[in-house]
């Protein structure tokens, strides 16, 4: 218990800090909340509900809707819990790899109290769940459980497809190290996880899925300029930017 106490205290401090500004906000969170509700009412994703990403986030929203009893305010709390879980995994992985509580706690602090986390964890957009399952995938990779690593990175992609670079990084490392058997186990995990999540869509709404996700998304106009987003990230979270380059 003693070795986990620092991260438990850190997470509690983070939750207290976030609770000071906790509440319902104008954001996409409301859309995901209502999408989860519609699914629970028997609506079919893509066919009855327009959606432009892969289907795991709406399914997750339904689960969160049930767990929060349909309370929108509590629904806004879910990303805070996801972020807390990510910081816990960072601590566990770093402590195991470096044998240092100080380094492990430092890593969790840099993540939890970065500007980008503090400012965006007020919203449930699926990003932090995708972060959680991608870090979980890495945890299983380090423990040589490659099937489970594949399962969880697939969940990240099926939540937010722009986690694709992490998946490609896994593939690159397997190829460079010539771990062909491990790569096969990893891809088995990816395939099984993807098939299970995509099966309802394939059965009930595959043509609508193609229209919503590919035809619409590839042809819609750009929102905020990406260069502005990158510069905002560099200026507000310089430490994370340096770590990213490293």
Blueprint (SSEs and pairs):
Layout: H1 5-19, H2 29-40, H3 56-67, H4 72-75, H5 78-98, H6 101-112, H7 115-120, H8 127-142, H9 146-159, H10 164-176, H11 180-204, H12 206-216, H13 226-236, H14 238-245
Overview of the structural elements:
The chain has 246 residues and is mainly alpha-helical. Helices cover 73% and strands 0% of the residues. The protein is built from 14 helices and no strands. α2 packs across α3, α5 packs antiparallel against α6 and α8 runs antiparallel to α9. The longest helix is centred in the last third of the chain and has 25 residues. 31% of the residues are buried.
Shape: globular
Give helix and strand order, one letter per element, not per position. Answer: HHHHHHHHHHHHHH
- Uncertain parts: none
Structural class: mainly alpha
What's the pLDDT, averaged over the residues? 92
Cα-based radius of gyration, to the nearest Å:
19 Å
* Largest pleated sheet: none
Helix proportion of residues, in percent?
Answer: over 70%
The fraction of residues assigned to DSSP E strands is: under 5%
> Gap between N and C termini, in Å?
33 Å
What's the total number of strands?
0
User: Count of helices?
Assistant: 14
């Amino acid at each position: 218990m003693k070795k986990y106490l620092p991260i438990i205290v850190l997470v509690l401090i983070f939750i207290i800090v976030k609770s000071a500004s906790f509440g319902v906000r104008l954001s996409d969170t409301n859309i995901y909340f209502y999408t989860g509700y519609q699914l629970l009412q028997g609506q079919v994703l893509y066919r009855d509900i327009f959606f432009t990403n892969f289907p795991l986030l709406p399914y997750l929203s339904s689960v969160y809707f049930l767990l929060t009893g349909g309370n929108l305010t509590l629904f806004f709390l879910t990303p805070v819990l996801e972020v807390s879980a990510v910081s816990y995994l960072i601590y566990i992985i770093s402590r195991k790899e470096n044998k240092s509580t100080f380094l492990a706690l430092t890593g969790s602090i840099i993540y939890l109290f970065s500007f980008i986390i503090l400012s965006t964890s007020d919203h449930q957009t699926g990003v932090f769940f995708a972060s959680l399952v991608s870090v979980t995938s890495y945890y299983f990779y380090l423990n040589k459980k490659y099937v489970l690593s594949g399962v969880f990175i697939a969940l990240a992609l099926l939540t937010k497809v722009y986690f694709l670079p992490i998946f490609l990084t896994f593939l690159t490392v397997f190829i460079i190290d010539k771990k062909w058997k491990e790569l096969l186990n990893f891809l088995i995990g990816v395939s099984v996880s993807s098939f299970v999540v995509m099966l309802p869509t394939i059965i009930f709404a595959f043509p609508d899925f193609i229209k919503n996700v590919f035809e619409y998304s590839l042809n819609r106009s750009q929102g905020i300029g990406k260069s502005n987003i990158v510069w905002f990230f560099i200026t507000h979270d310089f430490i994370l930017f340096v770590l990213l380059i490293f």
